[in-house]
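Recall that a protein's primary structure is simply its ordered list of amino acids. Everything else, from secondary elements to tertiary packing, is in principle encoded there. The following example makes that idea concrete.
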Amino acid sequence: MRFYYPAALLAFLGACASLTQDQCLNANWESIGYNDGARGRLESYVTRHFDACAKVGITPDVQAWQAGRARGLPLYCTPSNAYNVGRAGNDLSPVCPSYQQRSLYHSWDWGQEYYLITQQISELEREERDIRRQIATGFVPPVTPEQSLLLASLNDRLRRIGHEINRLEDRRRRYASAPI
């Protein structure tokens, strides 16, 4: 068993690398920078490429990477993308010019609201499934008076959950697309 742990650790560490060995050997640093910029990666992210490529003796072309990143950043710094970042539940990277911050954070907040409402709905749906499972498995006839009261309480909670899910779904529709 001892041999499996180092292999698993190496696989895990390899998964964390920014680039594969093949990507390092055949790198177009401007293209890599462009993709990193479009993903909102910080300028310091290039150090991850240094670490990944050092294993195969490749040194990133930092100037080409920076030029590509500068061309890619405008794709990240759009209200539409900021909305998508928020909707996915992620933080907005602080790579955009300060004059764009207000509109970007407005869009990000809008997407974040959609994400948070979706999380609330998911929690309620989990609770609903748990209650339905409890009702299906916990009440075998003949039902005692105490069980009857519990069953009524559980059914009442199911109704309230259903109303809350409907209310949240109505609210979520408002945030279903980026603000104009």
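Residues 102-174 form one domain. Confidence is low (pLDDT under 50) at residues 1-15.
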